[in-house]
Design goal:
- The chain is of the alpha+beta class.
- About 20% of the residues lie in helices and about 35% in strands.
- It contains 2 helices and 4 strands.
- β3 and β4 form a beta hairpin.
Length: about 110
């Protein structure tokens, strides 16, 4: 679906890499660790409802500025449950767009 939207906008996808979901790791003892310090819990994702899965990917695309803007607009129209974050654009010929894309999907019933 993403490659079809990229082709329609005239951009080239360079990278489509899954991003592992954050997990709570056991704190490691080190010289800077305080014995009374409590490990910080990651904030809960407000969009992640019971019965839903979250998938995140790191996406890098190349193209002209207007083409990249059109690609972002096409991504926004795909689903209201698709969130773009950590957007970075590197100027050049062609320009490079890098972003994290998370989408939420109902977990299939067994």
């Amino acid at each position: 679906m993403l490659s079809a939207e990229a082709a329609a906008a005239g951009v080239v996808l360079d990278r489509y890499e899954p991003v592992p979901s954050p997990t709570t790791a056991a704190p490691t003892a080190g010289p800077t660790a305080k014995p009374s310090a409590k490990p910080a819990k990651p904030p809960a994702d407000p969009l992640l409802a019971p019965g839903w899965d979250k998938t995140s990917v790191l996406l890098t695309a190349r193209g002209a500025g207007p083409q990249l803007v059109q690609f972002l607009r096409r991504l926004e129209r795909l689903s209201p449950l698709m969130v773009q974050s950590d957007l970075a654009v590197k100027a050049g010929t062609p320009a490079e767009l890098r972003l994290n894309l998370s989408y939420y999907d109902a977990r299939p019933s067994p």
